[in-house]
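Colleagues,

Please find the record for the two-part complex below.
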Amino acid sequence: MISTRFVLKRLLLLVPVLVGVASLVFAVLHLSPGDPALTIAGERASEEFVQQVRESLGLNDPIWVQYGRFLANAAQFEFGESFIIQRNTSVREVLTNKLPVTLELAIYGQLIGIFLGIPLGILSAVKQDSFTDHTTRIGALAGISVPIFWSGPLLILLFAQTLGWLPTSGRISVLYNVEAIRVTGLVTVDTLLAGEWEMFVSAARHMILPASVIGIYSMALISRMMRSSMLEVIRQDYMRTARAKGQGAKITVLKHGFRNAMIPVITVIGIQFGGLLGGAVLTETVFAIGGIGTLLVEAIKVGDYPIVQGTVLTFAFLFTLVNLGVDITYSILDPRIEQ
Amino acid sequence: MSQDGNNVSRRRFLSAAGTAAATAALAGCTGGGNGDETTTEGGNGGGDATETETEGGDGGDDGSPQVLRYGRGSHSPTLDFQNSTSGEVAKVTEQLYDTLINFEPGQSTLTQGLATEYSLEGQTASITLREGVTFHNGEEFTAEDFVATYRRFVDSDYEYYGGDDYVSAYGPFTLGAWIDEIQVDGDYSMTIQLTQTYAPFLRNLAMFAAAVHSKAAIEELGTDLNKNPVGTGPFQLENLDDANELIRLSANTDYWGDGPNVDEVVFVTIGQNSTRAQSLASGELDIIDGLGAQSSIQVENASNADLVRTEGINIGYMAFNMASREEFRDKRVRQAVSYAINTEAIVNEIYSGFATQASQPLPPNVLGHNTDLDPYPYDPEQARSLLEEAGYGDGFSFELATFQNPRGYNPSPIQTAETVASNLGDVGIEVDINQQSFGPFLEYTAQGRHDACFLGWYTDNADPDNFMYVLLHPQVEEDQLTDGQDWVSFDTEGYNTSNRSAWANQEYMDLVEQGQSTYDESERESLYFEANQIAHDEAPWVYLDYADELRGVSTRVSGFQIAAISGPYLNLVTLE
């Protein structure tokens, strides 16, 4: 069982991490060149106009005042209004819009990775040095090596343009007004909740290519990790003992081996999923799915400080939460870890 | 602008077409970080609908709505034209709102909008408004709406003023600085008193930023208008989907003007140019804009789309900072550099022919563009002899500041800078390239810290003053100028930092000031002819290019009018 104390201790550890990240983001943004007031005002603005903007945003205040204000607001998850990307819209609203986009892609991508990667890894380990093993390993290597900005357009070219089976980009056909049925922000879920079958099919078809691109990469990593971890476990004494007691090979691997081999795999899945929550920027870009990653890159490019701060902190928060989830999973798989 | 510029340039691509669609598509994507990025300026595009249509995009015949899908590179940061200077904002607000005066579709001439009569005499503009126009909220349009809109934009004493962190710089730039007072004479008549005689004023009224809000909506919604637009335009907002970066508009059946001919318009955001072009080719979009060279080739290769182009009203240039470098104060050095840079190669090779060589500050299709002037030819010999004459035969070195991201008028800034460096290296001038992202770059150069820099300009109102006065006039008081010196320091009081050259040529300034206050068109034209001649000879800039406007348009679209200013005129579009 997981003790509350264990979880609380981990949760408390989040605080210094988040304060550290917040301070770092603040420092980096304020040390980097570029004046947000000038960016907002644009090329047509007079110096007087830029000064007005600077004043109204509090950018003339001493840096420690700005820092204090930022930390106090960040503690309430309040980052002010976007400067440029969504003019005068609260960062919280922007993130609420964008987070489900990223979350949906990450979930489907990771699910594909897990459901393909784990069985392939096990198969590869059990049949070490066989044809299956070599094929899987080469496949995995290719999966890791092929960059998404190459495989993405190639898939679009094949499945969307040449064969015409799947759409090229976006999350759902633009003919459907998915905003009107928004509940969770996950289009595949919202369309089902609304009972809109045709819309669901459109959303699912749009998800196939981007989720596969992420899934293939994820599968490659997971299967490699699963294979090596399982190979180690297979050679353990308790495995031999189980076999010696007369237990079948399959049962031994799946019952005794699997659970123990999963610990490093969970780590990989956790890190990967955490990373995906920060946005699969390349995939989002290629398939025109504007999630949190694209938002962050865009915000950095145009100097939208509130969005950068809000996004990075959200990302840090989610990442640490995923790590907490990983830790909890560890302790379920191996209760000794909790100690 | 000339309609014969709207040619579809298939021939130009014959050689490139041989590389097949796959190569083009892949090159487009892998080049993503460079020249194929989205530019915020520029136009719309065309698209195509293929046989392999994956989504039902048609509609109409079976009673389902006809939906026009317009693909572009960035989502609108706001739906309020007073809230941003971005061209992306204008594309949508032009559908939702009307201005008093319009640009003729595809032209730079003016025509009636919400005003049926307009005139400018001395410092007085008289305007008669159209009767019987209603806003999307059912309110009738009157002069009071214009006054409330104006005050919301520039008058900080007004109860419904947008706020300093809300209103865009277009408030003072196009209206506030020139308007002294607005007198309302009944519901449909207004007299606007200007602060000075100002020839571009009526053109400023045609800009997207001078559109008209409903007074009732201003009072009811305040700054929430940036998500809930209430205009008089051909389309009204159906749904703003920031999560999916879609904007859905529906036809305003009570529209006073032409069209609309489709039931709905959806603005779709696809950041990557190549993906956007592929979406057009697979029939998921009807019109696309923001095309780079590679994605234009994709559109060309699509069987069901056309690449439509026209001359843009813009300029890309390299400015010499005369305030910071003594060498650049010698006209012969500036001319030498102009001769030494192979702008023809830059335009044809680096910009893939989607631009023309520039010869003067004013692009074609704007009053006062001097057709007698030719671009500086590539002539290193002439450059060397001019440098010799000026006493710089042994060369010198300078820093060239450039932005990194492509802009419409300079789609490959780094490559252009490298070409300039290489060309100048041939005549003994060493160039040190200083590349920065656009925000910091603007700040750096506005402070005059550069030796030379790239920059460019897209017109606001297609008036010569918008280039000649805005970009090359120092705008300082007379007593700040030194006799016999044709430059000023960047820290001079009131200095116009858009003049990145620090150029202050008295003769040019006099002509441009006269042009600003002269209302007779032919007289104005000759003033700008002369001013352009001076700017060409004195060479405060190296004139690089005028970039074309490119759109990808599906063959199922008809009536689409490519426009270098204002638009897109989606109310005129019909779908098959």
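Residues 210 and 283 of chain A are 6 Å apart (CA to CA).

Comments are welcome before we finalize the supplementary table.
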